What we know:
Layout: H1 4-11, E1 15-16, E2 22-30, E3 34-40, E4 44-48, H2 56-62, E5 66-71, H3 77-80, H4 83-90, E6 93-97, E7 107-109, E8 114-117, E9 122-128, E10 137-141, E11 144-146, E12 151-152, E13 155-156, H5 164-174, E14 182-184, H6 190-200, H7 205-219, E15 227-228, H8 229-235, H9 244-253, H10 261-274
Helix pairs in contact: 6-7
The chain binds zinc ion (ZN) and fe (iii) ion.
Amino acid sequence: MFSIHDFILTENTSLMANNSASLRIHPIPAFQDNYIWVIDNGQHALVVDPGTAEGVVQYLTQHHLILTTILITHHHNDHTGGIDALTEYYNPVVYGPLKEEIAGVTHGLVPGDVIDINDLGLHFAVLDFSGHTLGHIGYSAPTMLFCGDTLFSAGCGRIFEGTPERMFKALNSIKTLPLNTRIYCTHEYTQNNIEFALAVEPHNIALQQYAKRVNLLRQKHLPTLPTNLELELSVNPFLRTDQATLMEALASQYPKAIQDALSLFTFLRAWKNVFPHPPSLGH
Ligand code: ZN
Ligand code: FE
């Protein structure tokens, strides 16, 4: 089992990529609780979901980096607001979902596409993460996933445009990635998500332990991200709808609403929307 601390420690140090190039992956905080992830090799850089250029330009300048690539997961402004200014400074290639209209995207992508970021030696597969928005995509490379607003640590994104089915499918596709996949979420929602997760699974020991680690990190104003798939499978209720104990506990209380993994997921997502109120049984 990885400890969350391992991931924080490595975040500013080097991570070996597939072609042995040494890459650094760093979160730039933005707005209230966003992270803009930067990957660089000491010379060139890629940023994911720059909701603002502020902070990003500062970081790139400070580290003498040239921005060559932007990855966009979906159209919300807190993920796209910095494209214009960054394009003016650096003129990068801007990848984003073809299905969504996003000003400044130069290369529209559909799920199944593969993109080569040659200057960083990275190859990303484009995944279908529709649910939060209809065209939402994810970017996966060996041991890393940029998932936008689809998965958060101990939680998942709200379903604004898609259906519970689509979101459930997106989350299930994440579960097929290697267990050591680091997941670079775009919001620091972990503490709040853990409160909900503990209401769902008060007896989950891995979750209780994770809550303590996360509280310590947040006391020091440190990010709780990236997370990793192995950890999320043990603490994230939205990835645990196939767990018999979780299913039995809730289905016995809410038999009308919950019959299978999808209806359990739908129930949990609806409950999270009104939490800390109890689940409404209106559906
Ligand atoms: Zn969003
Ligand atoms: Fe967002």
